[in-house]
Design goal:
- By secondary structure, the protein is mainly α.
- The protein has one domain.
- Helix content is about 70%, strand content about 10%.
- It has 5 helices and 2 strands.
- The protein has a two-stranded antiparallel sheet with strand order 1-2.
- Helix 3 packs parallel to helix 5 and helix 4 packs antiparallel against helix 5.
- The N and C termini lie far apart (about 50 Å).
Length: about 120
């Protein structure tokens, strides 16, 4: 019954929604794999944030870098739930939420690359 309602759903039939959802999920997976392959478990803390004014201003354990893909996944889920609930009332707001989730994923993958470069 659930799969039948998902198949007939207008929200998931929309091409823009599908593309943004798949791209966002792909970027979360890429970010996770990139961090998993480049950051190895270690006792020494990692540099997690760099500021132009202060230099390195946040240090933490190696597993703290995986909060980036987790935050991306949470933002993706929240934005898609909101977009789903608002889709029939206003497509524009739903598209804005979906594109925002995709933009956040792009910024998080850039942040992950910069963290990897900072610690290499």
């Amino acid at each position: 019954m659930l799969f039948l309602s998902l198949r007939n759903n207008l929200f998931l039939r929309d091409k823009i929604i599908k593309v943004c959802l798949l791209l966002s999920l792909f970027l979360i997976i890429v970010c996770s794999l990139l961090l998993y392959l480049r950051i190895s478990p270690q006792v020494a803390p990692l540099y997690l944030r760099y500021s132009v004014y202060f230099g390195i201003d946040l240090i933490g354990p190696w597993w703290a870098v995986f909060f980036l893909p987790l935050a991306g996944l949470v933002i993706l889920v929240v934005n898609f739930i909101l977009a789903y609930s608002l889709f029939l009332r206003s497509n524009i707001i739903s598209y804005f939420l979906v594109f925002t989730a995709l933009a956040v994923q792009l910024f998080l993958i850039i942040t992950a690359i910069l963290i990897i470069l900072l610690n290499s």
